[in-house]
Amino acid sequence: MSDLAKTPQPPYYAVIFTSERTAGDKGYGRMADLMVELASQQPGFLGVESARDAGGLGITVSYWSSLEAIRAWREHALHQTAQEKGRTDWYERYALRVSKVERDAFFEM
Question: What is the separation, in whole angstroms, between the first and last Cα of the chain?
């Protein structure tokens, strides 16, 4: 994804997922695409930005309207399946952080 998420005026929430991948795809790419598609259909989803370097370190930030929307996404059945596969197959390690966005600013040439 190369576009910046188009978020509303704050406040809103950001879920920051930083991960280090294991070697090989093992179905990761297909599931990652499916998760973005499915998340975008969830109530309260505002957008997503993601990047991964050649060494396997990645950061995905998803934006949500509320903590309740984040909780519902975390508990979605297919997302829980992806979370389990992440722990068993796709990630060496990861960190998850939830933050409230109080202020934002954008620049574009």
Answer: 19
